[in-house]
């Protein structure tokens, strides 16, 4: 554990087996008196393998519909009933919905207790569980209520991916590729496309590609941790991590949450590349390349709505500042920038 250090500057990512988590939680860490687990009920089996006996386990249904303030209150009421004190540690085990809610609940319980995560989906391992954003939805608008507060640690445990349905692997693939579109200094975008395409050709079986996938996850996690650590409150560089997300959140809203976040992000990145082309910030070939690469990886690329329909939802995006949204647009692989526009301006250009 990192003690006496501003966790906005240091994000502690630990790669280990699930049974090794316990020693990191308690050994040499006298401040942590008890460990309380909040988990997606689908991964309860993992909660029982963390290498330390939990003082309580709270199971939840990790759906976008349940990702609201009432669930946070349920978690905090449970912590109070279990006698969790200021020195307790809350461990969130599950995908991004679970870690978002766990981090928020722990951040407001008794004005803040310590928390850590074991993300169990590809999407959460490379994105949702890293960076300190914790929150819930409001009237189906994504993450409108929340805080920025770093976990004590994020434990990346490879075995948690082994039984994931292929659709969840594909959903996480969009955030993995997004990270390397932002920072391709090691040429990992191409490696990621190659690995994800091979997994698709193998019918979604990741067993033969575990080493390559785990290496890519580790690199993507460190890239996001670096960006989030340098700009924890999203005043500059961290905005780049929103590549594709303004469009994606609108797509999710209009779909009634029937389109998962990761699938919406891949569509959103393609739309962002097309918008960059319309503005002369990128060659038309870039959006064509991204669309072809994403298809090869089994990802969604076609927006199910008319682009103009996205305008209203984008206006209510939590990152909107007045009428302006900071659209993140790619000029190339490893080259993205911020373009301030209104949703109306963006959608009009895409419709031309």
Task: Explain the overall architecture.
The protein is of the alpha/beta class. It has two domains: 13-161, Rossmann fold; 166-202 and 236-351, Dehydroquinate synthase-like, alpha domain (Up-down Bundle), CATH 1.20.1090. The chain is 43% helix and 16% strand. Strands 3-2-4-5 form a four-stranded parallel sheet. Strands 1-8 form a two-stranded parallel sheet. A two-stranded antiparallel sheet has the order 6-7. The longest helix has 21 residues, at 210-230. The termini are far apart. 49% of the residues are buried. Mean pLDDT is 92; it is low at 1-10.
What labels would you give this structure?
single chain, four-stranded parallel β-sheet, Dehydroquinate synthase-like, alpha domain, 352 residues, alpha/beta, Rossmann fold, 2 domains, disordered N terminus, 13 helices, two-stranded parallel sheet
- Oligomer status: single chain
**Global mean pLDDT:** 92
- The best one-word shape is globular
- CA-to-CA gap between the ends? 53 Å
CATH architecture of the largest domain: Up-down Bundle
Instruction: Tally the helices.
Output: 13
Task: Specify the CATH homologous superfamily of the largest domain.
Answer: Dehydroquinate synthase-like - alpha domain
Could you tell me the number of beta strands? 10
Helix percentage: 40-55%
Rg of Cα set: 20 Å
Q: Provide the spatial order of strands within the biggest beta sheet.
A: 3-2-4-5
Q: Indicate how many domains the architecture comprises.
A: 2
What is the succession of H and E elements? EHEHEHEHEHEEEHHHHHHHEEH
């Amino acid at each position: 554990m990192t003690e006496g250090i501003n966790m906005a500057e240091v994000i502690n990512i630990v790669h280990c087996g699930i049974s090794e988590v316990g020693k990191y939680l308690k050994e040499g860490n006298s401040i942590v008196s008890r460990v309380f687990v909040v988990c997606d009920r689908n991964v309860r089996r993992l909660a029982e393998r963390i290498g330390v006996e939990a003082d309580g386990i709270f199971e939840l249904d990790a759906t976008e519909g349940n990702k609201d303030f009432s669930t946070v209150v349920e978690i905090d009421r449970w912590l109070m009933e279990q006698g969790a004190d200021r020195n307790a540690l809350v461990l969130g085990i599950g995908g991004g919905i679970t870690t978002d809610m766990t981090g928020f609940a722990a951040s407001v319980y008794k004005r803040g207790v310590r928390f850590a995560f074991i993300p169990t989906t590809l999407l959460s391992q490379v994105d949702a569980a890293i960076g300190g954003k914790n929150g819930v939805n409001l009237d189906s608008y994504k993450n409108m209520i929340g805080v920025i507060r770093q976990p004590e640690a994020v434990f990346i445990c490879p075995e948690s991916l082994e039984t994931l349905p292929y659709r969840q692997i594909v959903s996480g693939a969009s955030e993995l590729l997004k990270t390397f579109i932002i920072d391709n200094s090691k040429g990992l975008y191409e490696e990621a496309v190659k690995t994800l395409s091979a997994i698709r050709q193998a019918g979604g079986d990741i067993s033969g590609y575990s080493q390559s996938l785990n290496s890519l996850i580790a690199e993507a996690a460190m890239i996001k941790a670096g960006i989030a650590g340098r700009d924890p409150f999203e005043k500059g560089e961290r905005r780049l991590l929103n590549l594709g997300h303004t469009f994606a959140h609108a797509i999710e809203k209009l779909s009634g949450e029937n389109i998962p976040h990761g699938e919406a992000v891949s569509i959103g990145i393609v739309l962002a590349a097309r918008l960059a082309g319309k503005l002369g910030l990128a060659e038309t070939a870039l959006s064509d390349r991204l669309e072809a690469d994403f298809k090869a990886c089994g990802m969604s690329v076609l927006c199910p709505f008319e682009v103009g329909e996205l305008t209203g939802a984008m206006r209510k995006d939590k990152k909107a500042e007045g009428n302006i949204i900071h659209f993140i647009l790619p000029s190339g692989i490893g080259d993205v920038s911020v373009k301030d526009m209104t949703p109306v301006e963006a959608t009009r250009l895409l419709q031309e």
